[in-house]
Amino acid sequence: QVQLVESGGGLVQAGGSLRLSCTASGRSIVAGWFRQAPGKEREFVGRIAWDDGYTYYEPSLKGRFAVTKDNAKNTLYLQMNSLKPEDTAVYYCAAGSRFDYRGQVLYDYWGQGTQVTVSS
C-alpha cells in the first residue's frame, strides 16, 4: 500500500505559478499527476519514474507544467507556470507499479486531491 498526500493548492491569479507537492508513504515505479475540472472527466497531466526520472506529459501542458521528484523525501512535485483560468481543477497525485498489455501505467494509489483555482 502506498498512501499519497497532496498539498500546495490554492488561489492564484492568471499568469502566476504554483507548486504542488505529494508525499508518498512508500515507493512505486511511476508517480503522476491528474486533474479534474468541474463537470469534466479526469485528465492526465504528467508522470515521472522514480528510478531514472523519465518524464512524460500531456502534450498540451508540456512547457508550462513540470513534474519533479525528491527521492530522499519520497515527494513528487508539480510546478505549474503561466497558469490560466482553464487550469482550475482538483489536482490528484497517483502512483503505480503495474502496467497493462500496452505498457500503460496502472495507477493503483491515489491522493485525496488538492484544489487549484486560477482567477482571471
List keywords for this structure.
4-stranded antiparallel β-sheet, 13 strands, single chain, mainly beta, globular
Order of helices and strands: EEEEEEEEEEEEE
Residue stretches low in confidence (pLDDT < 50, at least 5 long) are none
Measured by DSSP, the beta-strand proportion falls in over 45%
Compute the gyration radius: what is it? Answer: 14 Å
What is the number of beta strands?
Answer: 13
Structural class: mainly beta
| Coarse morphology | globular
Total of helices: 0
User: Mean pLDDT score, rounded?
Assistant: 95
Helix content: under 10%
The rounded distance between the terminal residues' Cα atoms is 40 Å
Main sheet summary: 7 strands, mixed
Summary?
By secondary structure, the chain is an all-beta fold.
Explained architecture:
With 120 residues, the chain is mainly β. It contains no helices and 13 strands. The protein has strands spanning 4-7, 10-13, 18-24, 30-36, 43-49, 55-57, 65-70, 75-80, 89-96, 98-99, 105-106, 109-110, 114-119. The strands form 3 sheets. Strands 2, 4, 5, 6, 9, 12 and 13 form a 7-stranded mixed β-sheet that branches. Strands 1-3-8-7 form a 4-stranded antiparallel β-sheet, with no helix packed on it. Strands 10-11 form a two-stranded antiparallel ribbon. It is globular. The model has no long low-confidence stretch (mean pLDDT 95).
What is the strand and helix layout of this fold?
Blueprint: E1 4-7, E2 10-13, E3 18-24, E4 30-36, E5 43-49, E6 55-57, E7 65-70, E8 75-80, E9 89-96, E10 98-99, E11 105-106, E12 109-110, E13 114-119
Parallel strand pairs: 2-13
Antiparallel strand pairs: 1-3, 3-8, 4-5, 4-9, 5-6, 7-8, 9-12, 9-13, 10-11
